[in-house]
Fold this protein.
Amino acid sequence: MATDYYAALGVSRDAAPQEIKRAYRRLARELHPDVNPDAGDRFKEVTAAYEVLSDPEKRRLYDHGVDPRASSQGPGPGAGFDFSDIMDAFFGGGGARQTGPASRTQRGQDALIRLQVDLREVVFGSEREITIDTAIACNVCEGAGTAQGTEPETCAMCKGRGEIQSVQRSLLGQVMTSRVCPQCRGFGTTIPHPCPECSGDGRVRTRRSLTVRVPPGVETGTRIQLAGQGEVGPGAGPAGDLFVEIIEKQDPVFHREGDDLRCTVSLPMTAAALGVDIPLQTLDGEEKIHVPAGTQSGHTEVLRARGVPHLRGNGRGSLAVTIRVETPTHLNGQQRELLEQLATLRNEENPDGTALEEQSGLFSRIRDAFSGKQ
């Protein structure tokens, strides 16, 4: 066996269960990711050691040269034939087989929260402080679940085995069945004097704050995983993970389509006819948009690399600026006269409507702008 679980916890091979538990609690407080982010591998090693040594059956196997964790992961060196699996198939269980009492120290559940971000955070990323309600280890009993000065007691019903066995007669003869002990719920011990702070669970709920880094390019539904920031498990077990799901708020100016952005700029008819350079306030700052003379309503100008960054790649999308030409209304006498003169000069007093081919339509011009066609 490559791993020395006793050495990992810093206890001797004849250490009592309570000594093993105290050693694990001490190391877990020192190595937990919330306290020591760089000790992730060491924390996993200590947790694995406690998982084996806190279980009497697993510890017995380990002391005889078999690592229960390695054996449970499939055939390999030291993995032997388990005759009890055959016995269970005939005499027992019809389901998952329990081997000895269960550990009160278990991994906590994962947690999910939703975080609303605006478009600027989506484009440039941000760091947000969030507040969550979660379970942490009880600081009164340090995860033991017992009142101060007391210890768990061996279950009187199952004698510490965590299961109750019974013998029944059948056509095959005597059949032995096992079930989880109803008094200790499979733990092998009971807590007659629970901690008044956590009621014996070994953890309490509290509100805490942490910082979340939102990477550029996220979108609604993107989940950010924060390892070890979820619920602390029963008995002050390892914490689960926290998942932060992104909800993107709608921007009043820019509309997102994938990693591209779109916006619309309105221009007077005269400016569109004569051509003009207009300032546009983008997310990257002010940009000059050149509107050539004779621009039609629906014309699109494309600004490259002014969209949303690619979340899993380099570069950014584009910003498409659509020009909307406004026709003047509520003309006074002089304005109307000038327009009538213009219509006469252009021979447009009596225009006839002409149906346009699809290629010169609005959607074709937008498509051509994105594909680079002239």
About this structure: Confidence is low (pLDDT under 50) at residues 71-98, 359-363. DSSP finds ten helices and 15 strands in the chain.
